[in-house]
Amino acid sequence: MRRLIFLLTFLVFCIEPVYACSCVERPFEEAVESADEIFIGRVVKIEEKKEFFSSDFREYWVSHFDVSKKWKGNKRTKIRVIQSYNSCEFSFEFGREYLVYAMETNQIGWNGTREHTTWLCSRTIDTMYYSDLINEDWIWDDRELLNTEFPAPVQISSIYNNWPIWVTILFLIIGISSWKLLNRKRNAL
After folding, report:
1. 143 in a domain, yes or no?
2. Structural domain tally of the chain?
3. Who has the most CB within 10 Å: 14, 98, 121, 149?
4. CA-based Rg of the chain, rounded to a whole angstrom?
5. pLDDT tens string 8-50
6. Is 106 left (phi over 0), alpha (psi -120 to 50) or beta?
7. Are 62 and 47 in contact, with CB atoms under 8 Å apart?
8. Which residue segment(s) compose the domain that 113 sits in?
9. What is the mean pLDDT of the chain?
10. What 8-state DSSP symbol labels residue 147?
């Protein structure tokens, strides 16, 4: 009997509270308003990060996306989405394609751009998973609504639609090389 009482007492003092994430269906308009980036992208890399801050230790995941279509946000084709360890996180899988509603965080990434995050209730979906559950009531696919809301999607940048920059760089390289060559010939005389 003493062992049972000891065990129950031990369990009562060692139990930590557990928090669950519950979502009510978030209206489309609210999701669009709160998102800084809305895009379809494929996960090309997932990293686990561990950092020490002044008062605590943080663990989180960073999912790297190659963006194929974007309705809202900047023109970048590469986006990093941070997920912390909690019950409301959206779990991304390597190689899968997602429709992502991402919000900016207050963190600045290694390249000087703002980091992004998303969560389970943000209307982010796995596009392949959605096609498997087409008859389910609780899942949504906003691509048609997004095409209506944003008739002209964001033109994402690539090496091909930045050709004026590359032509300018090429002319600068040719100009500097020619100038150095002429100076070398002039000094040789």
Report:
1. yes
2. 1
3. 98
4. 25
5. 565 555 555 555 566 677 788 888 898 999 999 999 999 887 7
6. alpha
7. yes
8. 25-149
9. 76
10. H
Residue owning tokens 């609780």:
138
- Over residues 133-153, the pLDDT tens digits come to 444 554 567 888 888 888 877
Residue 92 belongs to a domain:
yes
Q: Is 161 contained in some domain?
A: no
Please indicate, yes or no, if residue 157 is contained in any of the structural domains. no
Q: Supply the CATH number for residue 87's domain.
A: 2.40.50.120
**117 within 8 A of 83, measured Cβ to Cβ:** yes
Residues contacting 49, CB < 8 A, separation 6+: 58, 59, 60, 61, 62
Residue with tokens 């974007």: 70
- Please tell me whether residue 167 adopts helix, strand or coil conformation: helix
CA distance 125 to 132: 12
